TrEMBL record:
Keyword DNA-binding annotated: yes
Organism the protein comes from: Neorhizobium galegae bv. officinalis
SMART domains: HTH_ARAC
Name assigned to this protein: Transcriptional regulator PobR
Gene Ontology MF terms: DNA-binding transcription factor activity; sequence-specific DNA binding
Domain of life the protein comes from: Bacteria
Signal sequence range: none
One of the Pfam families matching this protein, by short name: HTH_18
Keywords annotated in UniProt: DNA-binding, Transcription, Transcription regulation
Domain HTH araC/xylS-type span(s) in chain numbering: 193-291
InterPro entries referenced in this protein's UniProt entry, alphabetically: AraC-bd, Homeodomain-like_sf, HTH-like, HTH_AraC
Length: 294
């Protein structure tokens, strides 16, 4: 079976048979719903997922890269990313699934109380110290217990929504403490953060460093210096890596023809896309798609 046809619908989970916009459960519960092959298979989700490892060790993959996880690890997975839970044995933890619509929007009055959820700015992998991890684990466990409440569904829904927002704010604060001091000292890292945000919005259309430098009001050299400081790669390489990643995602988790993938990523000719992809990954688009079969 090809992973391009993998269906993640079995991940749908409704505690106590109640339809909530956020689902909280143990990984061990999920294992009773899916097969080892389903657990191991890579999926591209249309929702957010938090994976909080509470015991054991496991190597998961995020966007085709291995991530070693142990107690204290928290994965923050965003819509569009490709993820595999790895082994169905040797570890357990909490899983929280929710859609972006579940969070308050800027147009809602509650957003005044939530100035910076920063969900998309969080790294894929957070390593938390014991006190921080305990607070996060307790917050998730409380959400799971409250989801089982016999209170009116609308009240349960609202309570879980605010609890999730509080949890995400906690994670934003924890990450900010880890990265904030260094970021505050470095103008280059601040510039790179803005560059990365622009890249997420424009990678399919803006392939040149000059476009991002103009948008940021800086020179190409200063943008490249910022990228080298943050990642050890040039700005040109960062752009190419992001385009290649999206190509991998589409090749592995859609049946879209390669020429349409090429057009969607801003290439005028499929042959140019094929040359670019092989240069970045060492494989042709067809070869990579075949390698994703399982």
């Amino acid at each position: 079976m090809s992973s391009t046809r993998t269906n993640a619908s079995w991940l749908g989970y409704q505690p106590s048979g109640r339809g909530l916009d956020v689902e909280v459960f143990h990984f061990s519960d999920l294992c009773r719903r899916g097969t080892p092959a389903q657990i191991r298979a890579p999926h591209r989700y249309a929702f957010y997922m938090l994976v909080c490892v509470t015991e054991g060790q496991v190597i998961q993959t995020v966007d085709f890269l291995p991530v070693g996880c142990a107690s204290g690890s928290l994965l923050v997975l965003k819509p569009g990313q490709v993820h595999s839970l790895g082994s169905h044995e040797g570890w357990d933890g909490w899983m929280v699934l929710f859609r972006s619509e579940f969070l308050p929007s800027e147009a809602q009055t509650t957003a005044d109380l939530l100035p910076a959820l920063g969900l998309d700015r969080l790294p894929d992998h957070l390593c938390l110290q014991t006190p921080e991890f305990q607070a996060v684990e307790e917050a998730i466990a409380r959400m799971q217990q409250d989801a089982m409440s016999d209170a009116p569904p609308a009240d349960v829904h609202a309570m879980i929504r605010y609890q999730l927002c509080a949890l995400l704010l906690r994670l934003t604060i924890l990450h900010g403490r880890q990265a904030g001091a260094e970021m505050a000292r470095s103008q280059g890292l601040q510039r790179f953060a803005k560059f990365r945000s622009l890249l997420e919005e424009n990678y399919s259309g803006w392939h040149n460093v000059s476009a991002y430098a103009r948008a940021l009001g800086c020179t190409e050299k200063s943008l490249t210096r910022a990228a080298l400081e943050a990642t050890g790669k040039s700005a040109k390489s960062v752009i190419a890596s992001r385009i290649a990643l999206e190509a991998k995602r589409l090749l592995a988790h859609s049946n879209r023809p390669i020429y349409l993938i090429s057009e969607g990523l801003g290439f005028m000719e499929a042959t140019n896309f094929a040359k670019f992809f092989k240069r970045e990954t060492g494989l042709t688009p067809v070869g990579f798609r075949r390698s994703c079969e399982w």
